[in-house]
Amino acid sequence: MAERSPEERAEELRELVAYHNHRYFDLDDPEVSDAEYDELVRELVALERAHPELVVAASPTQQVDGARSGLFAEVRHRTPMMSLDKTTSYEELQAWGRRMERFVLGGSNYVCELKLDGLAMSLLYEGGRLVRAATRGDGEVGEDVTANVATIAAVPVRLGGPAPEVVEVRGEVYMTVDAFDALNRQQAEVGGRTFVNPRNAAAGSLRQKDPTVTAGRELSFSAYQLGELTGGPAFRYHHETLEWMSAAGFPVSPYTETVTSLAEVDRYCAEWADRRHTIGFEIDGVVVKVDDLAQRRELGATSKAPRWAIAYKFPPEEKNTLLRDIMVSIGRTGKATPFAVLEPVVVGGARVGLATLHNEDQVRAKDVRPGDTVVVRRAGDVIPEVRGPVLPLRPAGSTPWSFPTACPVCGSPLQRLAGEADTYCINVECPGQQVQRVTHFASRGAMDIEGLGERTVALFCREGLLHDVADIYSLDLERVTTFEGFGPLSVANLATAIEASKARPLARLLVGLSVRHLGANTSQLLAAALGHLDRILAASEEEMASVEGIGPVIAASAARFFALPRNREVVERLRRAGLNFAGPARPDLPQVLVGMSVVVTGTLDRWSREAAEAAIKARGGKSPGSVSQKTTAVVAGAGPGGAKVGKAVQLGVPVIDEAAFERLLETGELTTG
């Protein structure tokens, strides 16, 4: 098979990285490991460095230093936008249905809806007028994309008929296949970026600073759920809410069906699995919901998903392609992950050039070898996976692939831990690990240091400015100004971002430290339970394991991490740098704000926005992103959000300055004079 050109490979990598950026940074729901994602980025960076003419403004490498963070204002959802539990088998779907019928009074009807392959969106209307459109984000906090969504013709700016006082409509922003094809033709004609699939095209079109760019692309919207509702009609069934949304002017899928049995649910899913390519837009499954809203309330939800709904994912599509090579990437914890370098192939609507092989045992079990023709699957239409070789096509003289014994980055020995499937580079000074650890520490999901993307971190590491994460806070900025591309403004912005990161919550610091097995959710649990990094450092393995949601594996890993002298030394240097070690509910602070809701807007002199919100929460209060009748006070700094202050005045909520805010933190008393 012919080698792909650098142009074709760069375009493929841009699409893959953009997709995983969206999953990681916007949805807080990554679908590949950090090592796999990092390898994609490293290859794209190297390709663009070797071929500067391939660098385009839309490339993720050009957006790392700020394009993914701060592009839109953050919005805290009034009601969390939860994810759905998923299944890929009729048996599991039947088991879910039987659970529903066992735990609710009477029988259950179900509403079956096509699962559009788009972007979840929350539309908030007050008095019948659109006031906010927000992405799902991590479910708790999304991004304000009101100006862009307002350009979508299918989204009503004003509701038809009698309007509730407040109503939130949730749905999917997507692009039809025809609109997608037209956009790619248009992009090709002007030499612009083309898109791999309609979903990425919709994501790229919506996430534009300039709303006129979004307006020039034919995006669609389909409503599927009511969220908050105040002063509106009372509904008993979900299908009634769909009818109401349609009457109010929202597009609602005409393919939705209300059925009375699990057998009919199965029939609907099987029918649409066969028909998925016969309609004018991409779908990747069926969403099944309990119709009775009282039964939904009875069923409730887990911490992540409602119990009354499930997403049935269509069987994955498979293709055959050439396995060019098997390589190994080194992640921030030193984990060595094998991955397949493939002759790029379109699978499930996306071009796949890399696929996970997980670990040494998986490679051996599948017996895949460079030169094999292999079956590639996108499980759930997302994760590229090599299923196995097509043995009749195996070249003569082929030999099994052996896991390397030396790190491909630093040449140090690779070691497989006893009783585990994973292999690690044991050199803590490995440049590959250093770059990945510091990059992860500075990433949006951790300390959110704008300007410290992988390229910049790699440069600083090569120049000896960074060896570990604590070095960030003693960075020689004067020397940085001597590097090409680092002018006074960019260095000043970097210094500001580094300083702001010191106030990040403890959970974000724990994420940034790259403790094995300790992710975002478990970091929050540990921070909330122990309240301070010093208490985590002093806690025994048993004490950490007793925290609900942590367990013995995570506790053992955290205990080993913080017992290492090198890690202790890094923590002490972070302490001296002034980072926040306090958790969300410090028991050493008086809980004077319990029951209060304090909104912060504008720029304060002595507090960053995050530090102010953390201080409120540390004293038992809440700090939501919007003003309501339940708001105790609005803290307004310089350049405050006019909408928030205006809403506060309208509702009679006190607006206080920084001095009054600090008195409130100290005493719990609200003074406006």
What labels would you give this structure?
single chain, 673 residues, alpha+beta, D-amino Acid Aminotransferase, Chain A, domain 1, DNA polymerase, domain 1, five-stranded mixed β-sheet, 24 helices
Question: How would you describe this structure to a colleague?
Answer:
This protein is α+β, with helices and mostly antiparallel strands. Among the domains are: 74-313, 2-Layer Sandwich (D-amino Acid Aminotransferase, Chain A, domain 1); 428-501, DNA polymerase, domain 1 (Orthogonal Bundle); 506-577, 5' to 3' exonuclease, C-terminal subdomain (DNA polymerase, domain 1, Orthogonal Bundle); 598-667, Rossmann fold (3-Layer(aba) Sandwich), CATH 3.40.50.10190. Strands 12, 13, 14, 15, 16, 17 and 18 form a seven-stranded antiparallel sheet that branches. A five-stranded mixed sheet has the order 2-11-10-3-9. Strands 5-4-7-8 form a four-stranded antiparallel sheet. Helix 16 crosses helix 17.
Layout: helices, strands, pairs:
Elements: H1 6-26, H2 34-50, E1 74-76, E2 86-87, H3 90-103, E3 110-116, E4 119-126, E5 129-135, E6 141-143, H4 146-149, E7 166-174, H5 177-189, H6 198-206, H7 211-215, E8 220-230, H8 238-247, E9 257-259, H9 262-275, E10 283-290, H10 293-299, E11 309-313, E12 318-330, E13 335-347, E14 350-356, H11 360-366, E15 373-379, E16 383-389, E17 414-416, E18 423-425, H12 431-442, H13 454-462, H14 477-480, H15 488-501, H16 506-512, H17 520-530, H18 533-538, H19 541-545, H20 551-563, H21 565-577, E19 598-601, H22 609-618, E20 633-636, H23 642-651, E21 655-656, H24 658-667
Parallel strand pairs: 2-11, 19-20, 20-21
Antiparallel strand pairs: 1-6, 3-9, 3-10, 4-5, 4-7, 7-8, 10-11, 12-13, 12-15, 13-14, 13-18, 15-16, 17-18
Helix pairs in contact: 1-2, 12-13, 16-17
